[in-house]
Amino acid sequence: MTERISGYQRFKMTNPIIQFFKFIYLSIKIMFIVAGGHGGTRKAV
Amino acid sequence: MSKIVILGAGISGHVAASHLRRKLSKNHKVVVVSPNSNYQWIPSNIWVGIGRMKSEKILFPLAPLYKKKGIGFKQAKAISFFPEGDKHEHKPYVLSEFVVGDKKGQQEKVTYDYLINATGPKLNFEGTEGLIPGKNKAYSVCTYTHADHAWEALNALIQDMKKGKKAKILIGTGHAKSTCQGAAFEYILNVEHELHRHNVRDMAEITWIANEYKLGDFGMDGMLLSYGSMTMKSNELVEMIFEDRGIKWITGAAVNKIEEGIAHYENLDGEYKTESYDFAMLIPSFSGHGFKAYDKNENDITEKLFKGFMIVDADYTQKPYEEWSVKDWPETYQNPNYKNIFAPGIAFAPPHSISKPRISKNGTDITPAPPRTGMPSGITAKLVAENIIDSIKNGKESLHNKGSMGNMGAACIASAGFGIMKGSGVSITTFPIVPDYEKYPKTQGRHLGKTFGDIGLAGHWLKLALHYAFIYKAKMRPFWWLIPE
Ligand SMILES: Cc1cc2nc3c(=O)[nH]c(=O)nc-3n(C[C@H](O)[C@H](O)[C@H](O)COP(=O)(O)OP(=O)(O)OC[C@H]3O[C@@H](n4cnc5c(N)ncnc54)[C@H](O)[C@@H]3O)c2cc1C
Prior knowledge:
The structure holds 2 protein chains of 2 kinds.
Chain A: H1 7-14, H2 16-34
Chain B: E1 3-7, H1 11-23, E2 29-33, E3 38-40, H2 45-48, E4 59-61, H3 62-69, E5 72-74, E6 76-82, E7 93-98, E8 107-111, E9 114-117, E10 122-124, E11 138-139, H4 144-162, E12 167-173, H5 181-197, E13 204-209, E14 224-227, E15 230-233, H6 234-245, E16 247-250, E17 253-259, E18 262-267, E19 272-276, E20 279-283, E21 285-287, E22 292-293, H7 302-305, E23 306-307, E24 309-310, E25 341-342, H8 374-394, E26 410-417, E27 424-430, E28 452-456, H9 457-474
Helix pairs in contact in B: 1-8
């Protein structure tokens, strides 16, 4: 096992308060990306 | 009056049925033909497979819901397609066979005006010798019954480890052309997390085995993504996670045979190797269901409808990887030969893989098949339903709603460990799913702001929130349609 994630990073990943705000941020961002529209890729002929 | 028949009640079939029913008046019939009695939210099978969620929590019976909502339901499986009808039946129909009740074994010609084939994949365990869920110490989490069995076996192994047994766990893909690496990725991280919780992590050697050329390929040719303030490759992200958790990996591996506790595989260097294990979870290859199709004179016209999966408006011309274009991917999921037939979700035949094809020194094609996850399955089903609704309402064909996987985003919220306070998740989004090298030439075909990765507890909460939201939506509870696909 090689510690690739530092103690500080791990603290940020597991701290519930930081993660609560992350949750709100990610929910909005993901909604924006996924529900933000889709369409074709070919030009109409 | 129009009759719309939907084959399959998985994510895409159910999404299509519910939108059609909501938007079409009761003069029009919506009929679902599917062999499964329950709807299952497949992504949560991961947690069933580690014993942290009961399978009852991820499923509900379809018949009462469909009855209440006015959706016809036949618990039957489609066998063959007659898109022109036959000598006795002038309407197009699907020959279906009932799988339960008094009518079990009986066949019926289910006629339609519009047909949505949402039969997803056949889990092709037969494609790998000896890969049978629950046999040879190898398991699957592709259905809730498979996941229940996987947990029984894993739990037994955990109990043995508590008594001092050292164990080897192997998780990944079970065929040269498997897809759904994301599901196996989630499962390996969840298993690793659970072993810690049971205080037996140091008793186990955990290994990832996959047909991906590099870690983090996910059947999507990998991706360049933003991670915090950095830009990194998906293989670097997954490598970091695996190293940090002490998970070993074998990539470019085509598992071709399973024996009791032994996986045989060939790698891209053409070497034939084995890996032993005490517990394995290997995703099989996905194939079409082997449906046949006939014209009105009962001549075989299967090649007009199927190429393994169903033929849609993709460009199936064979061309080298360098010439692949995002435009090859379908936009409306309409069969070009029979315009009242559509195939959203996994049921459509992709034009080619997304990952670069790779051949071993012995000539074996070891290339992940393209994934079609829950979100694109739902989005493509909804757009098919909307085009049918518009066509019915306008009295002429309408194909305004388009959604190519080359112009659509997807989120893969991979659970990395269950627990309200101790859980973790790896959230990855990509836009577009199929890289568009013309639009985003400098960022490996993807929009960097919309293609990102994140690790942390919030990811677990997100996955859990999606579980509840999508089951609420699938149960068609008040305002269900406000929840996006
Ligand atoms: C373990 C696992 C975890 C996953 N996790 C995620 C995730 O976290 N996020 C995500 O986005 N995606 C995830 N996926 C992928 C997701 O589940 C699929 O993309 C999705 O289920 C595809 O939907 P579908 O409707 O096309 O096919 P399916 O859901 O497979 O549905 C097919 C339907 O067709 C029916 N059918 C089969 N044969 C016939 C027949 N002959 N006649 C009539 N009906 C038939 C089946 O009974 C079923 O109801 C996961 C998949 C697996 C296996």
